[in-house]
Design brief:
Blueprint lengths: L13 H20 L4 H13 L3 H14 L4 H13 L3 H13 L5 H6 L10 H12 L6
Helix pairs in contact: 1-2, 2-3, 3-4, 4-5
């Protein structure tokens, strides 16, 4: 399952925006034909977010969480969407669920720009404290 691409956002060129819009139209058509196509939903949700269509991305991530309730990455992406739409309490719930399901990329989480709105929330600080208590496995 591909991860959402949350690299720091760079200003897209006009051509890149057009290409992204075309990909969105294409993926919307794919989803219309097969509403349970998980990989297409993931791509569409990521594309919406990259295009700044955060409410549309959130709608897709909520749908994915219903379809894949045990997937840590899906819940992490849902937390990002909640953060982007300034729904921090729900973002904390989803991020906690992601960690409980096995999400462990804490370095990424600490720098992810999609979680920026969440970083000052008390719930996020509690999550950070919980992470510090997780034993590190040596290999």
């Amino acid at each position: 399952m591909p991860k959402k691409t949350n690299s720091p956002r760079r200003k897209a060129t006009v051509q890149q925006l057009r290409d992204l819009d075309l990909e969105i139209l294409f993926m919307e058509g794919v989803i219309k034909r097969d509403p349970f196509y998980i990989e297409a939903l993931q791509i569409l949700g990521d594309d919406y977010t990259r295009r700044g269509r955060f409410q549309d991305g959130l709608r897709i991530d909520e749908r994915l969480a219903r379809l894949c309730p045990q997937d840590a990455i899906v819940h992490y992406n849902l937390a990002c969407s909640y953060s982007l739409t300034r729904q921090c309490d729900l973002a904390v719930e989803s991020l906690t669920m992601a960690i409980n399901l096995g999400y462990k990329d804490f370095a990424r989480m600490a720098k992810d720009p999609d979680l920026k709105n969440l970083r000052e929330h008390d719930g996020y600080k509690k999550i950070q404290a919980k992470i510090r208590r997780i034993p590190v496995k040596e290999t």
